[in-house]
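Hi there. Long-time user, first ticket. I'm pasting a complex I've been working with (about 777 residues overall). I'd like to know whether the download I got is complete or cut off, because the file seemed smaller than I expected. Thanks.
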Amino acid sequence: MGKHDDDPAWSDITPLPTSEGGPNPLAAIAYTEEYEDTMSYLRAVMASNGFSPRVLDLTEDLIDMNPAHYTVWLYRAQCLFALNSDLHVELERLNETALAHQKNYQIWHHRNLIVDKLDKCEGEQGFVQRMFVKDAKNYHVWCYRQWLVKRFGLWEKGELDFTEEMLREDIRNNSAWNHWWFVVNGREAEGVAGVTDPDSRAREINFTKDAIAKAPQNQSPWNYLRGIARKSGISLAHLKSFAEQHASLDRPGAVKSSFALDLLADILGKRRVATSKLVGRMICWR
Amino acid sequence: MTSSQENGDDTLDELLKDKARIEELSDDEDEDDSMTGPPFPGNHLKPRRKRKSKLHPQPQRKLLEIPPWIFDTNELFHNDVKTPSRNALDKTAAECLRFLTLLDIQGLPLNSHGLPHLRRKPHADFLRFFLGPLQTGFTAMDASRPWLFYWCLAGLSFLDVDVSDYKERLIETVRPLQNPGGGFGGGHGQYSHCACTYATVLALTAVGGLDVVDRKTMWQWLGTVKQDDGGFRMAVGAEEDIRGAYCAMTIITLLNLPLELPPDAPARKGGLTSFTDKLGEWVGRCQTYEGGIGGGPSNEVHGAYAFCALACLSILDAPHISIPKYLDIDALARWLASTQTTPEGGFAGRPNKLVDACYSHWVGACFALIEAALPGMKDGLWNKAALQTGPQGGMRDKPSARPDGYHTCYSLSGLSAAQNHYWYDSKSNTTDAGSGRLLAAFNWQAKRGTADELAVLKVDEEDVVALIHPVFVLRLEAVEAARRKFEAGGL
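Hi, the file is complete. Here it is re-exported in full:
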């Protein structure tokens, strides 16, 4: 007997126990009685598409027991909207769950649904920042951040400052580099040019070169430079002298970055110039 | 560097001393990529240390001759600034290096080249364990049990274990997961989900049990997740990302479902009529400034999403047609090659992230697909000799991680990608005139690496993993059986 079986508030519901799938199911999990009981009631409620405060409690219990349960999250969102629940309360609850389960990502889609419905994003940027304290490269959190910027037009509301701060903490954080690109180039459909605009491009190239000067052996800004060149149709050859600053072919021992060599190889290869000097340098480097 | 390289052992010694120092310094550094959730079940499968060393007495060994890529770029650029990423990378390099150089062989039996054998039986036992009754701690997997079926059954088949014995049990197990409205959920009463359905259909294909699938309702359900913009949601009301695109097209093609959208599919209101409408363009929008592929437009590049993109496009048409049509192939090839890490030789999922064995599949399997689309590709884009295996009973992300079914399945697939040859037969038809089925994904051919190639990889014949389909990640003959089974099409 599970706890809902004895509860008069649930006496109108006939639970639907888990169908195990034959006498000898594969990878059968030994659920606790509480989990099995709660799932059985949720299954029954979902079968009749029931939305009520007690169903919200049921989904909350299940999420506590298994936050990776996508069905429960999706059903909970429907239930919250059907009941016109206070979504601020839901956000508060989500904050705790998100901080406790850093690797859970169902929660970010749920948050997205809630905040979209709320139509307000106060405090969201700040909360996202808290998530990055433990994992500054959390993929789903960065996706959520992009969605926030797009949905609420936060392009010029501190996004570049925030991203710069993330890069100051770790200049190799590729997620932050990707976000930087997104903030600079994400509004082309709205007619705001990114690196295709010469002024913006010059600024971006300088920013990237400064980053490379701090840590030449860092793939992220080198990828960023190539991205600028490709996007704005500039030949990589324009970057030759810069690449040589970090990988001089004339001064053995002065190679500071394998990515600079890589770029030089592409430039020289494209120009069909004899690359023996470069090859020689690379062999020596190896 | 050149002079010290001549005396490999001295360099190694220095390198290891240096590494030990880095390890000590970065003890507090905690790049946590480990999962909370299921407890580690494999302890009892590990042979006891003492007995093991008796079983495999280790004579005096020479350390592995060090190939050039072993030298960490950090050794060469040691003045570079330290950041949290750099410290985590150094720590991982240090923990891998002792295995890469064979300084520590974990008591494993060695093959004729002095590298650890692929130990089929312990790996198979490890995978079988996850198909048996699981403890309460596995409740965290309650919404992803189909993945256990797929990882374990596919992984066993990659090890040449006959999995057809599991057919009846699997069919009965997945019956309650199939929803009346079509598709499979993670468990009984759970919403149908593209990833759960993909894993279930693949597992059923591996054992020859596809009869249990209701193809008509599957087609109708897939119609509900196709989006106006061309992509697919993972479930009704769930997120749209590139996994959905790959999973949906895999299901449609293996089962030969009609490409035409069901009459009541919401995307019809947006003017779409086919599952493939705007799909290639949507995948193309996921390529970023770095050349790699994100989970959705403008999201960060990620190795697993690169595989989803390339495999999805390789279902839509011949890879040399569809990949260059929708992607900047040079930029993608360059990005893929750049994810191979030094000194470990495996792959990282993103720039400046850590090497992880599962990317031996997610990135490793990309090369067959993209090489088929690059004219005149002969030598291969990646350093195959770099891949390593070795842990006992199951495979793991990296030495400090615990083995699991996911990493075991995809490490085996990655090994197969390195050991064998896969190529696309561009003379075969890409569409079936009768049923309209997309045939490109069925035109792959494969053969085992030659004796000379295996010698270069330092692999014995008995260590070669089965031929694995580069798009569907199943044994080739299992894919062929599914192709034949649904040849007639219709519903």
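A couple of notes from our side: The first helix of chain A runs from residue 33 to 47. The CA atoms of residues 223 and 259 of chain A lie 9 Å apart.
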